[in-house]
Design a protein that fits this description.
Distance between the termini: 25 Å
Order of helices and strands: HHHHHHEEHHHHHH
Number of strands: 2
Radius of gyration: 19 Å
Largest sheet: 2 strands, antiparallel
Number of domains: 1
Strand content: under 5%
Length: 312
C-alpha cells in the first residue's frame, strides 16, 4: 500500500514538474529553436550517461533508427512550437491548447491503426472545439494584446499562440502513436527515448547548418541565467521524468497515468498565475473554456476505461 501511494505521489510530482516546463520557457530569453537545441542536447547527454551507468544496451536496428529519427523530428517541432506559442502569447493560452493532446490521440489513433472512429470520441471532440472557440474569441484586457499578421491573416498574439499550441498538441499525439510501436520492441524504453531526443538535437543542428547561420554553436545561449534555467529544464524537467515515468508505467495503470497527466495544464496555469501575476491573469471566459477541454479529456479516458473493462 505504501509503495502504491509512493508511486502515485511520484507520478504527480513528475506531472507537476512537466507543468513547470512552460514556466521555464518564459524565463529563458533565447528563441524557441535555440532553447530546444540546448534542451535536447543536454537531455540526450544525461540519458546517455544514465544508460552507461545502468549498463543498458544502445543496440537498435537500422529500420528502427529511421523511425526514431522521425520521432525525433516530431519531438523537436513539437517543443519548438510549444515554446514558440509561450513567447507569442503566454503560458496559460499555450497550455490550454496543449490540453487537447489526448483528444488529438483519440482522433488520430483510429487513422493510424486503420480502425473505426468512435462516435463518442467525435462527440467529445466537438465539445473540445467549443472550448477552444470560447478561448479563441475571448476578449482580455486590450493592453495585453498585440495585433499580428501571419500568412495574410490577422490575429491577436493570444489567438496565434493558441493555434500554434493546437498544432503542437497534434504533433505530440502523432509522436506518441509512432512511439508506442517502437517501445514495444525494446526491453528498456529509455533507450528509445535517448535516440529520439539525440536525433532531435542533431536535426536542429543540421537545420542550422543548411538553412540559417551555418554554425550550430550560434544556438548556444550567452547568458548565465539561461544556462541555469536550461540545465533545470533538461535535467529535472525532461531527463528525470522520462526515466522515472518508464518505471512507474510498469506498476500503475494506464488510466491512472492518463488522469494525472491531464493535470499538467492545471499545474502550469496555476504556477503561471502565481509567478507572473497580471501577465497571466485571464477572463472567466478563458477558464470556462479550459474546464470544458479538461472535462472532455477526462470523460474520454473514463469511457475508454469502461470499454476496456467490459471487453475483459
Amino acid at each position: 500500500m505504501k509503495t502504491h501511494l509512493k508511486d502515485h505521489l511520484n507520478l504527480h510530482f513528475i506531472v507537476f514538474i512537466w507543468g513547470f516546463t512552460a514556466i521555464l520557457g518564459k524565463y529563458i530569453s533565447v528563441s524557441a529553436l535555440d532553447l530546444v537545441f540546448n534542451r535536447t542536447g543536454l537531455t540526450a547527454l544525461a540519458i546517455g550517461i544514465f544508460l552507461i551507468i545502468k549498463r543498458r544496451s544502445f543496440k537498435a536496428n537500422s529500420k528502427d533508427l529511421l523511425m526514431m529519427w522521425l520521432c525525433g523530428v516530431l519531438i523537436a517541432v513539437h517543443w519548438i512550437t510549444f515554446f514558440g506559442a509561450i513567447k507569442i502569447a503566454n503560458v496559460s493560452i499555450t497550455l490550454a491548447g496543449i490540453a487537447t493532446g489526448a483528444l488529438w490521440s483519440a482522433i488520430l489513433g483510429p487513422l493510424f491503426h486503420k480502425a473505426k472512429i468512435e462516435w463518442s470520441e467525435l462527440s467529445l471532440g466537438l465539445l473540445v472545439v467549443s472550448g477552444i472557440a470560447i478561448i479563441f474569441y475571448e476578449e482580455p484586457d486590450a493592453t495585453k494584446l498585440k495585433q499580428l499578421e501571419y500568412l495574410g491573416f490577422k490575429f491577436t498574439n493570444n489567438q496565434l499562440g493558441l493555434l500554434i499550441a493546437l498544432f503542437s498538441a497534434a504533433l505530440s499525439a502523432s509522436f506518441s502513436l509512432f512511439n508506442q510501436r517502437l517501445v514495444q520492441r525494446y526491453p528498456f524504453p529509455v533507450q528509445v527515448t535517448f535516440y529520439e531526443i539525440a536525433f532531435a538535437f542533431v536535426s536542429i543542428g543540421i537545420y542550422e547548418i543548411l538553412f540559417r547561420s551555418g554554425n550550430p554553436l550560434n544556438l548556444l545561449p550567452q547568458s548565465t541565467n539561461d544556462w541555469i534555467y536550461l540545465l533545470i529544464l533538461a535535467l529535472l524537467c525532461t531527463a528525470y521524468p522520462f526515466i522515472m515515468s518508464v518505471e512507474l508505467l510498469k506498476r500503475l495503470s494506464a488510466f491512472s497515468v492518463m488522469l494525472a497527466i491531464n493535470l499538467e495544464p492545471v499545474y502550469g496555469i496555476l504556477l503561471a498565475a502565481a509567478l507572473f501575476g497580471a501577465s497571466e491573469a485571464m477572463n472567466p471566459q478563458f477558464y470556462a473554456g479550459v474546464l470544458i477541454i479538461l472535462g472532455t479529456v477526462v470523460a474520454n479516458g473514463i469511457i475508454k476505461a469502461r470499454k476496456r473493462t467490459k471487453r475483459s
